[in-house]
Write a structure and sequence with these properties.
Chain A has 25 helices and five strands. Chain A is mainly α and 668 residues long. In chain A, the strands form two sheets. A two-stranded antiparallel sheet of chain A has the order 1-2. Chain A has a two-stranded antiparallel ribbon with strand order 4-5. Chain B is an all-alpha fold and 301 residues long. Chain B is built from eleven helices and one strand. The chains are: A mainly alpha (668), B mainly alpha (301). The interface between A and B is large, with 88 and 88 residues. Strand 3 of chain A pairs parallel with strand 1 of chain B.
Chain lengths: 668, 301
């Protein structure tokens, strides 16, 4: 704490060049300190310390169990790469001294807040840490404050994150009122004594709060605005880990709330499939690269949610294998998503700094200018689509295996949900592939579509280094999945409280299977490399010529003739138009001498239109009825004041008089 | 191991048989069975022309594509005999590794900056996206029926018990044949022999590939077809000994090749903009299989 305090005071004082370094050093310092108990907890030594607290809060327990430990490690890694990358990324904004100070301080505060959230097990302290995290991430988002849409996105985020806090506060107050304790264990005591419907209601209340943070449909609407507005490393960190704290909250509550887990699992699984499919369906039609990535975060939250739902069903059914597969899939996908999504956002940041646009339709042919960025984006895309040999496949594989294992001996309701589950997951996989071939293909490949004032160039090595570190981990998890999943055995064991603590036999065959996919991934990599090497050796001795792309003999090839992102998704757009809301402006070619023609599509978000815009419109309409009050006359305003004061003074008297009258009448 | 060798062998003559069937049905003399092989050998010897627009992805993609198919072939069993790679949930690996290859082939098409190839890439991505759920539903139903989740265990324990299961086999064969045709861009979805770029799917994606790379991509087609043929053959093997499985395997593969030839001779291609809906109906056929499995398991009583 002291450490953070010193750093925060220190940052505004040091010169612009050093601000980032101080921030990075602080982040690394916090990470090192917090990693010690985190690693200890993963090896089976949970850390517990009780802070004295004050009279209001009571004693504040700090517990780092295996679940917190896992999340702290995930946080640490992404925040370090984020700070490292951000140090380089922010060099472009050196003239804005004060903003940089604020930015660096907020970054450290978000990090500290997140670590505190994962460690504190006391609802009031938890909420305070949550508020620190929410407010400082607001400052992170609005770094480019002179742009109107950035401020708008920031305020949208601020409001929604406070709705989230209200829901959490309600849930915690409900418990604290009955149990008179802010300790998280009170939640367990509270729900144990009551029927399972109370537990379910409490969980759903807290879940809606956490779901806003995590971005479950229909609570996701802030996410696609906030991510494109923030600087690249902030988007990476936000999408990678800050929204994951919602997942942490859900997982933590699952450890505490005692209720009917089967029903819970059904609800979670259904909502998550919906989230996953809806997220990726909207991602495909986006024109803004960062917005596209933001919708993919929603999709991946859906995948994590599916795994959690599966784990809950496992608890409900008393099936330890399913519990192991579900929760290890969820935790591993949390790590995986934080890795590849931060990598994607960092690469998008390179593109933004090189071209100053995020409009996919204007980009193209960047591979020749930025080969490293292209490679990094490509690797991350393969990973996010869940394709071997990268890490995304491992966690999706765990979820698939879980669903197929749950199939035998399930009743009809579970069966139809599971079928929906793997149908959804397969569809999500296909759609994600569609989306990322579009993104990589139009942004990086082909030839340029738009002239830029500055020739785009590759980012420096200092920027690329943290990204290659992430790639090593992406590949490492893909090739040695067994190692990482066995790390998860302690956090997953926490969930075996239902199956009377006789360990988790289910996870060990899973590890064995995982060595199978590890081998598969390795062979695939070697085989592809070998074929490519042989081919290169073979082709070297033949004639190789370079010429124009084949265009049916047409020679005047320009970049405008390329397939654009919109045309790539046109067939898909036609199919989904009835489901999604896509606003189209079209100007047809008319007459003998046509002048101009054009077509624009603006992807909207139907759920946002229904759940946010419509109620807001209704509210506005309602409040507009009182607009006559605000008529601009000073005399009227003074009159309102006088009326108010008179009412305040007179009303109690009137009430007293009336009650006396009634008493008098009664006495007669 | 045996299945791998058999599939590789079969892939050498697969397109030959298809072409031979087509020439017989249309009353032409036609080329011999080994003609496609000779064409491949000629391509391998040729030099290449690359587009100036392309990057390293274009060079890398054909190798990854071929490697992905070979990887997928590795997990195919032969009745009770395991494939080289076999583990729980290996069919997920099968589908996703093929996806990795497809990802690269789509990207290589986008890499050329050609309007035709972008069109083909878009179609390929869309169609394969819709085919994937059907495959998973099919395998999910089998997993439900047998209680296992690896190719070898599923096929080993599939048994022909009641009359419903025969219907299931027919439906499963239909789904697998259709998926094979979609994945290879064959006849009712795409006409590999069309001469108009606007109506192509797969062929238009490889317009700019030449020489060795084109050879690898073209070899991918019979390899993939033989792989799906192997999968279909596995439906009918159960736990027969090797003496029986090899003839069954070869016989069914040849029958599959002849079927493809006949389909291509007598059917017209579907309208391009209706393909997506058509492919989605495969999922409903798979759903029928699932219902059939439930019927066998007595879930409806």
């Amino acid at each position: 704490m002291l450490f953070i305090g010193i750093a925060i005071v220190f940052i505004p004082l040091v010169s612009v060049e050093r601000k980032g370094i101080v921030a990075l050093a602080t982040v690394i310092g916090i990470a090192m300190v917090s990693s010690i108990p985190a690693i200890a907890s993963l090896t089976g030594n949970p850390f517990e310390y009780v802070l004295q607290g004050s009279q209001i809060t009571g004693r504040i327990p700090v517990r780092i169990d295996a679940l917190s430990g896992w999340f702290i490690l995930v946080l640490n890694f992404t925040f370090i790469t984020g700070a490292w990358y951000g140090l380089q990324y922010m060099k472009a904004y050196r003239q804005q001294r004060e903003m940089l100070s604020l930015h660096a301080i907020s970054y450290i505060l978000v990090f500290a807040g997140l670590i505190a959230i994962s460690a504190l097990q006391h609802s009031m302290a938890f909420l305070i840490a949550w508020e620190i995290m929410a407010l400082s991430s607001f400052f992170l988002i609005i770094f480019e404050r002179h742009r109107a849409e950035v401020i708008k996105a920031g305020i949208n985020y601020l409001i929604q994150s406070h709705v989230c806090i209200i829901l959490l506060t309600l849930g915690f107050i409900w418990v604290a009122m009955n149990e008179n304790s802010y300790d998280f264990n009170a939640i367990a005591q509270f729900t144990e004594k009551r029927p399972s419907s109370v537990g379910l209601a409490l969980f759903l209340c807290l879940f809606s709060g956490f779901a806003i943070k995590a971005g479950f449909v229909p609570f996701h609407t802030w996410l696609p605005y906030a991510h494109p507005a923030a600087p690249a490393h902030v988007s990476g960190v936000m999408s990678g880990v800050i929204i994951k704290i919602g997942i942490y909250g859900i997982l933590r509550m699952l450890l505490l709330v005692r209720t009917d887990f089967l029903v819970l699992g059904y609800i979670l699984l259904f909502l998550s499939v919906l989230t996953g499919i809806y997220g990726v369906m909207l991602a495909i039609i986006q024109h803004n690269l960062k917005k596209l990535l933001a919708y993919h975060s929603i999709e991946n939250i859906g995948i994590i949610g599916m795994a959690i739902g599966l784990g809950c069903i496992g608890i409900g059914k008393g099936n330890p294998g399913l519990v192991a597969l579900g929760f290890s899939g969820a935790l591993l996908h949390t790590l995986n998503h934080s890795l590849f999504k931060s990598l994607l956002f960092y690469s998008a940041g390179h593109v933004y700094q090189a071209t100053h646009t995020m409009d996919i339709e204007k980009l193209g042919g960047l591979v020749k200018k930025m080969p490293h960025t292209t490679l990094l984006f490509l690797v991350a895309s393969l990973a996010i689509c869940g394709l071997p040999p990268f890490n995304g496949f491992v966690s999706e594989f765990l979820i698939y295996t879980g669903m197929f294992r749950a199939l035998p001996g399930s009743d009809f309701a579970l069966l139809s949900l599971l079928v929906l589950g793997f149908f959804g997951l397969a569809l999500i996989g296909g759609l994600a592939m569609f989306c990322f071939t579009k993104a990589v293909g139009t942004v990086f490949l082909g030839s340029p579509r738009h002239p830029f004032a500055h020739d785009p160039g590759e980012a420096g090595w200092a920027k690329l280094m943290p990204m290659y570190v992430i790639v090593v981990l992406l590949l490492g998890i893909g090739l040695f999945p067994g190692v990482f999943v066995s790390l998860l055995s302690k956090p997953v064991e926490l969930y075996s409280f239902i199956s009377s603590g006789n360990g988790l036999p289910g996870i060990f065959p899973a590890v064995e299977t995982l060595s199978g996919i590890g081998w598969g991934a390795a062979i695939f990599l070697v085989l592809a490399g070998l074929i490519f090497w042989l081919r290169t050796r073979w082709v070297m001795n033949r004639v190789q010529t370079y010429d124009q792309t084949w265009a049916c003999g047409y020679e005047g090839h320009t970049g405008k003739m390329q397939y654009t992102a919109s045309s790539f998704v046109r067939a898909y757009r036609k199919l989904v138009e009835p489901v999604l809301s896509i606003h189209k402006k079209k100007k047809e070619i008319t007459g003998i001498f046509p002048v101009t023609a054009g077509q624009e599509t603006h992807p909207g978000d139907k759920i946002e239109e229904w759940f946010i815009d419509l109620p807001v419109k209704g509210l506005k309409k309602f409040f507009n009825r009182f607009i006559f009050l605000q008529n601009g006359n000073l005399q009227f305003y003074i009159l309102y004041g006088v009326v108010f004061i008179t009412l305040v003074l007179v009303l109690p008297l009137v009430i007293e008089y009336f009650s006396a009258l009634i008493q008098f009448l009664n006495s007669i | 191991m045996i299945s791998f060798i058999l599939i590789i062998l079969m892939s050498l003559i697969f397109t030959g048989i298809v072409i031979r069937t087509k020439s017989i049905t249309s009353g032409r003399k036609g080329p011999g069975i080994f003609q496609p092989l000779k064409d491949l050998a000629r391509l391998f010897k040729k030099g290449s022309v690359y587009s100036q627009t392309t990057s390293f992805i274009f060079q890398l993609a054909p190798s990854v594509y071929l490697a992905s198919i070979l990887m997928a072939v590795l997990v195919i069993p032969l009745g009770q005999y395991k494939g080289i790679l076999s583990f729980e949930g290996d069919f997920v690996f099968f589908a996703y590794v093929l996806g990795a290859g497809k990802f690269f082939s789509i990207l290589s098409a986008m890499d050329t900056g050609s309007s035709f190839e972008g069109m083909g890439a878009s179609r390929e991505a869309l169609f394969s996206m819709f085919a994937e759920p059907a495959f998973f539903l099919l395998m999910g139903s089998f997993a439900l029926l047998t209680g296992y989740t690896s190719f070898q265990q599923i096929f080993h324990s599939l048994h022909f018990g009641s009359s419903v299961s025969y219907v299931l086999m027919v439906l499963a064969t239909y789904v697998l044949v259709m998926i094979a045709l979609i994945e290879n861009s064959r006849m009712p979805i795409d006409d590999p022999k069309t001469h108009l770029e606007l109506t192509m799917v797969h062929e238009v994606m490889v317009l700019d590939n030449s020489g060795f790379d084109l050879g690898m991509i073209l070899y991918g087609t019979p390899l993939k077809l033989a792989m799906y043929g192997g999968l279909i053959a596995n439906l009918f093997m159960g736990d027969f000994p090797l003496v029986l499985t090899i003839p069954i395997f070869l016989g069914l593969q040849i029958a599959f090749a002849v079927t493809v030839g006949i389909i291509e001779s007598f059917m017209a291609r579907f309208r391009m903009n209706h393909n997506a809906q058509y492919i989605l109906t495969l999922s409903s056929v798979s759903l029928l299989i699932l219902l059939g499995v439930l019927l066998i398991l007595g879930q409806f009583n």
